[in-house]
Known about the structure:
By secondary structure, the chain is mainly α. It has one domain. The protein is built from 12 helices and no strands. Helix 9 (209-222) packs antiparallel against helix 10 (227-247) and helix 10 packs across helix 11 (251-270). The longest helix is centred in the N-terminal third of the chain and has 32 residues, at 38-69. The chain starts with 15 loop residues before the first helix and ends with a helix. 37% of the residues are buried.
Amino acid sequence: MTPGHPQNGTPPRPHRAARDTPAPPDVPPDLPPDLPPIAARLMMAGATVFMTVAAMFLGVSLLGLAVILSGVDPKVAVQQPLWLAAGAFASQASVFLVVLLAWRTWQRFRGITRQQARAELFPMRVPQALELFGALLVSFGVAPLAIGVATLVGDALGVEAGSAEVVRRAASAPTLVFCLLLLCISVLPGVVEEALFRGFVTRLFIEWPWLAWVLPSLLFGLVHLDVVQSIGTAILGLGFGWVRLRSASIVPAMFAHASYNGAVLVTARFTPEPEEAAGVPVLLVAAGCGVALLGNWLLGVSLARRASKEPI
């Protein structure tokens, strides 16, 4: 028998021309091309943050120009919930453009198809109900810590988070406008921001799980450009990031993000504004950590169930 013949148990050797022929574009190669070193990935992440802030500034500026051209006083417009919804929509539309640019950049860099790039950047496996519940518990569990630390920093600096005034104005909006605000402040950020930070930025550092967890969360807080809000948002981002890495999908993180933002608006609308507590509410933070641990356990149970159903 000749070497490489199927009858002797070894696979046949392909012809040299066949080995040198590149795989068709819709077939992933056995070994993906080398990813950039970590310094280059950090530069890509920094550029993403810069473009995100610039795009949001441009979007809001164009909206401000539209307000002026419509004859409305900008100082009056910022007090009106409908213009608030328009501003939130313009901001999220700008972030969405950055997501599309990041998608295209990753596709060209990796030399893969659009569908393959989407699968790598935005894993959207359909989650189980238990997985979504666990994601909610993790995200809402870290919320007391995020709120407490942000309040502590705000008290030390003598300032209030800019989002607090936005929530108050949204809560007093007419019913139809409030529903529109729920879409623009809850649903859209949950989808678009998670696609950018738990999708693209997390994928840049996926080979280093701790970095893929912490860095996107810090950058997520940074783009909010408000010291108090940025700190609280970064802590919340740690919850969303943990869900993303634990579930290997961005869908639970999107769901948790949108649900949290929506819960903040609904609570502000239908409950009296609570008195601000001094410092970090230790008992509430401890209870929240327990809830987050329970959510993490449920994510693990869901992961084990899914693994047991997958064919070996």
